[in-house]
Amino acid sequence: MQDLILIIQYFILGLVQGVTEPIPISSSGHLVIFRELFGIKAKGLSFEIFVNFASLLAVLLIYKEDIIRLIKNTLLFLFKKDEAARSDFQFVIYLIIATIPVGVVGVLFGDYLGDLLSRTEVIGITLLITAAAIWMIRNLRGRKQDGDLTMKDAVIVGLAQAVAVTPGISRSGASIVAAMMVGMKQDTALRFAFLLYIPVSLGTTILEVPDLVTSPDFQALWIPNTIAFITAFVATYFALKWFMGIMARGNLKYFSYYCVVVGLLVIIFL
Which residue spans traverse the membrane (predicted)? Predict the structure, then answer.
């Protein structure tokens, strides 16, 4: 019976990760909240990065055509100087530039940020910060498309994503907020944010593999962890498809309301 309860708990954790990863309400913050509710204690970022990898696979599946096109056109521009491929080549360069800040922050402060995951009061405060940021851009309608981006845009979005390594600050939210503040259209902001998510998530997963493999707790719970992984993959896929529609309609203010309510509840009760 106890094993069944544990499996149900990890199923819920996977569902929470999958649903909250693509939308601007902080998947890491919600995982902390639900682990606190379930009494599941864990140090560091191993479990979060494991289920985050499941979300990464779902994002890769949804954006596979964009990824293939960007890789193909980048190679065409580099080796054949095809001017028609220049825009996609520049887009890739801007993605690389935007990745640098979060990489630096992760290397320098990764252990400290892992310790923050045990502090629910931090999550409550950062959810309120996320709410304020989303509220600021709720009515913005930018004009910049893929070919209109600049180096400055990439740096600003990259810095915003670096801030989002703090638990409770939504990664997708921070990236989308920054992208829309520099004038990107909703679909461009969404695509840039999630294509930017790919190298960052892949890098953190690779760095965490040794800890995952050697962790006795992780190996002992391989069945619950596998269930959480599969659930996170499926939930991320459908949640991102749903969020694409939300972005197109411009209903981001409701995520701001949600983060305010959850942030206050966490501060008061957890």
Answer: 44-63, 91-110, 116-137, 189-207, 219-240, 252-269
Query: Could you give the number of structural domains in the chain?
Result: 1
Number of Cβ atoms within 10 Å of the Cβ of 18: 27
CA angle 263, 267, 109 (to 5 degrees): 80
Query: Directed axis angle between helix 222-249 and helix 2-20, to 10°?
Result: 30
- Residue 157 contacts residue 193 (beta carbons within 8 Å): yes
Check if the beta carbon of residue 192 is closer than 8 Å to that of residue 149.
yes
Ramachandran category for residue 253: left, alpha or beta (phi over 0 → left; psi -120 to 50 → alpha): alpha
- 3-state DSSP: the chain helix, strand, coil percent, rounded to 5? 80, 0, 15
Can you give the residue range of the structural domain that contains 39? 2-269
Most confidently modeled range among 99-103, 116-120, 163-167, 247-251: 99-103
d(CA 116, CA 133): 21
User: Given this model, what pLDDT does residue 112 score?
Assistant: 67
Site of tokens 């080549």:
89
